[in-house]
Description:
By secondary structure, the chain is mostly beta strands. The protein is built from two helices and 20 strands. The N and C termini lie far apart (55 Å).
Amino acid sequence: IYLSNNNLVGEIPSEIFTLGNLTNIHLSNNQLNGEMPLDFWSSSIINSANLSYNELSGQIPLDLCTTFSNPENIFLKGNQFCSEYPSCLNENNMFPQNCETTICNDGYVGLWGGCFEIETTTEIQIYDNGLNAPIPSEIGSLVNLNSLSLYTETTGFIPTEIGYLINLNSLILNCNLSGVIPTQIGSLVNLNRLDLYENQLSGNIPNVIGELVGLDYLALNDNQLNGELPSEFDNLLNLEYLDLSNNFLTGSIPPEFGGIDSLKTLFLQQNELTGEIPNELSSIESLFSLNLSNN
Length: 295
């Protein structure tokens, strides 16, 4: 059965799994929901099953490893299987899940259906448009995290607990996030790269970002940010790339920007900026790309 990439809805009929010669079932990228029929989990003839990117949920039987013919060929990522998994399932075929809560053992943090060890997890990168669950507040427990990159359809807000990740060097959230940029982001004193582009973030740009003196890359473009440009950005003496384009920023360009001697790229186009272009920008000898159009 190959019915992937349709708009199928509802539950998967249990009668399908009474077909005596069914060896492959591919139903990925639909809108199927509910729990999987028990006959599926106990099948001894199915060789391959791809049910990824639906809205399926429920408990996966822990004895699956002894009842299912080829558990390594089960693909279930992008659903809502949020409880403990049998050990024989391939983690790459399971993660991520659209879970707001994931139960894990002590010393681990549950995120999107996966369990991450607090002491050893230093990097999380997820490239998956099927992930739309919010960023759990529990992420703040991964205090040894150096890099967090989410290229997903994650919804909700940036949790304030992000401020606990004081060892972060790189924070990239290219998702579908809304709300304001939390001021707790100013606690990320080791940050070199802050990239929050192409979200739906609103409100002012927090002045505390100007305290992240290690930043060399800052991108807040393609959001719904408003208010004036923070003059505190003149503290970012290592900043080479600054993109605040495609927002609703107002006011004038602070002359203090001319003190960012390391700046190579400055994009402020597609805002609502007014006033004169400060002469101080001409003193930035390293600047080779400047876009102030459509203000």
